[in-house]
């Protein structure tokens, strides 16, 4: 969801930098790449350790939650995403959402996009789902997401869309195909496990994966 469907990765950067600035620290892109896809307690621990912040995990989460309560409802859908979701839904292709977000942050982020997110028959919210023990790059969330499908698809028949290094590694570890739509600053040599890398969801061609084409 974050950085792939919605622009919330940009909002996370603003929020984390606001807290880091209070202690004269910088939330860098390299640190961002390290935490993308982690569950909330995991990324809090990573940021606190990397920036040597005098905060506990709970204190960090409380401070950032105050900021994100205002920011997340401002989220926007990224280019090309709605077309892909609506196309797969109309073609009766089973689709699910696998996000490391909690139920609380999911509700904030999708507040103004409920119609679009209602097209996902199955949702896995990693930070609130007890079956997801570990965040990305571990494959837990994708195993949990696939298990919700009545068809019980084999991993190699699942296609994941991701925007992060950790997400690609998690999907690859789960034995699934993965399309990466990365931040333009990302070093693509770090994501060799991706099945396909595209600049934008506007560039996605479903037929490359045996799915109905947009003009079919």
TrEMBL record:
<dbReference type="GO" id="GO:1990738">
    <property type="term" value="F:pseudouridine 5'-phosphatase activity"/>
</dbReference>
<keyword id="KW-0460">Magnesium</keyword>
<comment type="similarity">
    <text>Belongs to the HAD-like hydrolase superfamily. CbbY/CbbZ/Gph/YieH family.</text>
</comment>
<dbReference type="InterPro" id="IPR006439">
    <property type="entry name" value="HAD-SF_hydro_IA"/>
</dbReference>
<keyword id="KW-0378">Hydrolase</keyword>
<dbReference type="InterPro" id="IPR023214">
    <property type="entry name" value="HAD_sf"/>
</dbReference>
<protein>
    <recommendedName>
        <fullName>pseudouridine 5'-phosphatase</fullName>
        <ecNumber>3.1.3.96</ecNumber>
    </recommendedName>
</protein>
<dbReference type="InterPro" id="IPR023198">
    <property type="entry name" value="PGP-like_dom2"/>
</dbReference>
<keyword id="KW-0479">Metal-binding</keyword>
<dbReference type="GO" id="GO:0046872">
    <property type="term" value="F:metal ion binding"/>
</dbReference>
<dbReference type="InterPro" id="IPR041492">
    <property type="entry name" value="HAD_2"/>
</dbReference>
<dbReference type="Pfam" id="PF13419">
    <property type="entry name" value="HAD_2"/>
</dbReference>
<dbReference type="InterPro" id="IPR036412">
    <property type="entry name" value="HAD-like_sf"/>
</dbReference>
């Amino acid at each position: 969801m974050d950085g792939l469907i919605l622009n919330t990765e940009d909002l996370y950067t603003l929020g984390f930098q606001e807290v880091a600035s209070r202690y004269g620290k910088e939330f860098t892109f390299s640190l961002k790449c390290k935490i993308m896809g982690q569950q909330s307690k995991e990324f809090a621990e990573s940021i606190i350790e990397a920036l040597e912040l005098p905060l506990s995990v709970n204190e960090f989460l409380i401070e950032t939650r105050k900021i994100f309560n205002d920011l997340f409802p401002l989220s926007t859908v990224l280019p090309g995403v709605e077309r892909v979701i609506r196309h797969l839904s109309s073609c009766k292709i089973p689709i699910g959402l696998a996000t490391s977000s909690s139920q609380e942050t999911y509700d904030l982020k999708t507040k103004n996009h409920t119609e679009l997110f209602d097209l996902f028959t199955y949702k896995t919210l990693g930070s609130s789902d007890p079956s997801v023990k570990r965040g990305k790059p571990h494959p837990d969330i994708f195993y949990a997401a696939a298990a919700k499908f009545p068809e019980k698809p084999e991993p190699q028949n699942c296609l994941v869309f991701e925007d992060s290094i950790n997400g690609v590694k998690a999907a690859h570890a789960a034995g699934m195909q993965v399309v990466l739509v990365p931040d333009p600053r990302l070093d693509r040599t770090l994501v060799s496990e991706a099945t396909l890398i595209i600049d934008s969801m506007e560039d996605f061609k479903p037929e490359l994966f045996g799915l109905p084409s947009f003009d079919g």
